[in-house]
Fold:
Amino acid sequence: MVAAMKMRIVVVGGGISGLAAAQRCLELAERQRLPIELTVLEAASRFGGAIATEITDGFVIEGGPDSFLSEKPWALELARKLGLEGRLVGTNEQFRRTYIAHRGRLHPLPEGFLLLAPTRLWPFALSPLFSWKGKLRMAAEVLLPRGPALADETLASFVARRFGREAVERVAQPMIGGIYLANAEKLSLRATMPRFLDMERQRRSVLLAMRAQARAARSSGSGARWSLFLSFDAGLQVLVDALVQALGPARLCPSTAVAEVNRTPTGWQVVTLAGETTHADAVILAVPAARVARMVRNSVPALASELASIATIPSVTVSLAYPASASPQPLSGFGFVVPRTEGLLTWACTLCHQKYPGRAPEGTMLVRAFLGGEEQAAVLGWDDARLVSAVREEIEPLLRIRSEPLFARVFRYPETMPLYALGHTERVDRIERILDAHAGLALAGNSYRGVGIPDCIHAGQRAAERICSQLLERQVAAEQRVVELF
Structure:
């Protein structure tokens, strides 16, 4: 009889992490014959969180992320599991180039330049993006000794130490800032780009390590099945919709905001803002860390204290559609990033119609600008007209656009991106140690060990595995007690 009793799992948050956690819970419960009742509570009226795709007049408009990395397996594996492999699309390789704004003009990132440093000498030497002094300083990295064995350092500190300040200002800050919407002076190297730290530790020179990796990749001759970045034919909403369908409407509760999560003698109590309470044997909190901190401040104050120190960064995307004739000399690339030294609000701009096929009708173009960040949080409160005007003023001269947009679409995200500040990895380690003392509670989302879609999916799946493992142990123990009684 005990074995037949269902155990209730509540997932708080219906973004990609929460949906992936819920899907994994159902998968594990079926495999392990674990009787569960699953509910997903989402504060918004829709599921997907930052993933939001709109299709307007043939334009596929992404409000949040537009792609995921194929190098990290979790998103691709989930797509296959949901039967979506046939809907995957890779980037248009003929436009696979990134530009950097410098002194009011766009310059191509030298071929072979990987995030922080060049792997090919000649394109780098000919690039007008760097001064000769900057080029020599970057090339001198091969002669430098290993740096001090620090627990952590900022990304800006590492790049300046290895490649000089020009590399920070003109490449590292715009490239990494375009991902994290944060100043490289505040970002933890260990939490954001640990592989570069590993390169220095293992090979001494980051440049030599990167060139060795590039040679090994070329000589292996193993062609990848997919491009580095992937999406779906109708945008990332395809993945969200498939998860929602797999979970079923009975398990999904939109427009249900959670106020607090409290410990009880038999499990956990979830209290909504409307005052409704739900008992749960286990809870997965798949919302930003700051929001989790408010939910558990009374039940697990030590956890709340650590979580509250992970700041969240607001972001805004502005999508603009134009006739192709608006730009007589179109940029041949995926888009551009903007160094903070340029003094613009825009962090980056994607040419959506060139990055993926089918994003805009023939004879049109679709561009998307990213704004926000810790130091520009005020833009979140601007009305649409002001945001569109500000973006147009900045990107149209760079892209040589000379006509009015066909339409504009603005998306605001108050709590999308976490700030992986100095010491972030150690903080997450402490958070996980605190969780070890609280069975039935798990965290998921981009606040902890990665901000990309594959990272979020993996976080959700790991949370589900933690919870199902604990519930299985509990079920086995209960069954054992029944056997002992008889």
Remarks:
- The first helix runs from residue 16 to 32.
- The chain has a mean pLDDT of 92.
